[in-house]
Amino acid sequence: MYPAYLDRFTGNEKALLLVEELQKEYHVDISALPTGSTAGTWLLIDIHGDELTSIQVDEGKTAEMEQEVVDRMQRLKSKKTSRFKRP
Hints:
Elements: E1 2-9, E2 14-19, E3 24-29, E4 42-48, E5 51-57, H1 59-78
Antiparallel strand pairs: 1-2, 1-4, 2-3, 4-5
């Protein structure tokens, strides 16, 4: 199984999955995605040949990455001091 990132939904009822480990992207029918999948969701996928055979949500990695984004935003907001001197 490979981790894949649901990057976005395209206009033709497809979703773009990025598989960094394989350096590939896959266009998948939206109907093939697990229920509740949204852009930014991490998935675990099985690939045989060049075809995806199973897709499931990786809830642990999705939650971990969402928390990382929240933590980074808090750090950025806490650094309100400017390095530039005001006249």
